[in-house]
C-alpha cells in the first residue's frame, strides 16, 4: 500500500493505492482556506481506516503553504516520512524544457504515469482549476504544452464581471445553438472546452508530425471528454498513479 497526497489549488486528494496502483480509498479536503491540523489528521485516518498500513507516502503539491502541513499530518498519523516530489525528482522522463525547475509537480506526475502506461507520444489534458495540455514524445521527453484558465475559473470570471448572468451547474445541454441564457452558458463551458481539446490535440499532432494518444484527468475531465470528437481517454487516477510511480523510482528499494 502507498499513501499519496495530491495538493491542488482547490482540493487535497488523499488516496491509498494497492500494489497494482488501484485506488482503494480516497478523501478530499478543501485547500483554499487554512484548516486546523486535526482536519488533515482526520482525513488521513479516514483514508487508512480498515486498510493495511502503507509502506510509504508521496506528496505532489502546487500549494507550498500546505506541503509541510500535509507531510506533518502523514508523519503524525501514519508514522511515515513522505517523499515530497519536486520538479527535478527522477520520474522516468527527460525534462526537455528551457526551465525544468519551473515544472509543476502535478504535470510531472501525470505525464510520468501517462508515459509509462499509454502508447507514445501522449498528450495529457488536466481539467482542474487551470486546464493544462502537455506532451511526452516517443523518446520519453517531456516537451511542455499550454496552460489556460480552467472551465470553472472562466465561468466564475464571467459571472463576477457580468451582473446579469446567473451561476450555473456544469451540465451539457442537448445542443450548441441555445436560446436560453443558462443553456448558452453551459454549452459554451462544456462544448467550448471539448472543442478546445480537439483543436489543441490536432495542432500538437501537426507540430510533432505524428498521431498521439490522448488522456484526460482532473476533476472536470469526466464532464468534458464525452463531448470531444477525438478519442480522449478519461483517467481519473492518473496523477495519483504517477506519484506512486515516482515513489517507487526514488524510495522503493529502501
TrEMBL record:
- Which reaction is recorded as catalysed by this protein? (R)-pantothenate + ATP = (R)-4'-phosphopantothenate + ADP + H(+)
**Cofactor(s) for this protein?**
NH4(+); K(+)
Q: Any idea of its EC number?
A: 2.7.1.33
Q: Where does K(+) bind?
A: 126
The UniProt entry annotates the active site at 106
What Gene3D superfamilies does the record point to?
A: 3.30.420.40
Co-factor note (free text): A monovalent cation. Ammonium or potassium.
Q: What are the BP-aspect GO terms?
A: coenzyme A biosynthetic process
As one GO molecular function, the record gives: pantothenate kinase activity
Cellular localisation: Cytoplasm
Q: Report if keyword Transferase is assigned.
A: yes
- Which pathway does the UniProt entry assign to this protein? Cofactor biosynthesis; coenzyme A biosynthesis; CoA from (R)-pantothenate: step 1/5
Q: Which residues bind substrate?
A: 104-107, 181
Q: Specify the superkingdom.
A: Bacteria
Q: Per its UniProt record, what InterPro entries does this chain match?
A: ATPase_NBD, Type_III_PanK
User: What's one GO-annotated cellular component?
Assistant: cytoplasm
Assembly = Homodimer.
**Which NCBIfam families does the record cross-reference, listed alphabetically?**
baf
Describe the task this protein carries out. Catalyzes the phosphorylation of pantothenate (Pan), the first step in CoA biosynthesis.
Annotated protein name in UniProt: Type III pantothenate kinase
* Species of the source: Brotocaccenecus cirricatena
Amino acid at each position: 500500500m502507498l499513501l499519496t497526497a495530491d495538493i491542488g489549488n482547490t482540493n487535497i486528494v488523499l488516496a491509498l493505492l494497492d500494489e497494482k496502483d488501484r485506488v482503494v480509498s480516497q478523501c478530499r479536503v478543501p485547500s483554499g482556506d487554512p484548516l486546523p491540523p486535526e482536519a488533515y489528521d482526520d482525513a488521513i485516518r479516514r483514508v487508512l481506516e480498515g486498510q493495511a498500513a502503507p509502506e510509504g507516502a508521496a506528496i505532489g503539491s502546487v500549494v507550498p503553504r500546505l506541503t509541510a502541513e500535509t507531510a506533518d499530518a502523514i508523519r503524525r498519523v501514519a508514522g511515515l516520512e513522505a517523499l515530497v516530489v519536486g520538479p527535478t525528482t527522477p520520474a522516468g522522463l527527460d525534462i526537455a524544457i528551457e526551465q525544468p525547475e519551473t515544472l509543476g509537480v502535478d504535470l510531472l506526475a501525470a505525464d510520468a504515469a501517462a508515459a509509462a502506461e499509454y502508447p507514445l507520444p501522449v498528450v495529457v489534458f488536466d481539467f482542474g482549476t487551470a486546464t493544462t495540455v502537455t506532451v511526452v514524445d516517443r523518446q520519453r521527453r517531456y516537451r511542455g504544452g499550454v496552460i489556460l484558465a480552467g472551465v470553472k475559473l472562466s465561468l466564475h470570471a464571467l459571472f463576477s464581471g457580468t451582473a446579469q448572468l446567473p451561476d450555473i451547474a456544469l451540465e451539457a445541454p442537448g445542443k450548441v445553438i441555445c436560446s436560453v441564457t443558462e443553456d448558452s452558458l453551459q454549452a459554451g463551458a462544456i462544448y467550448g472546452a471539448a472543442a478546445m481539446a480537439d483543436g489543441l490535440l490536432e495542432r500538437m499532432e501537426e507540430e510533432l508530425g505524428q498521431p498521439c494518444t490522448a488522456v484526460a484527468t482532473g476533476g472536470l475531465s469526466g464532464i468534458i471528454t464525452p463531448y470531444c470528437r477525438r478519442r480522449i481517454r478519461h483517467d481519473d487516477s492518473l496523477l495519483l498513479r504517477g506519484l506512486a510511480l515516482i515513489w517507487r523510482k526514488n524510495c522503493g528499494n529502501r
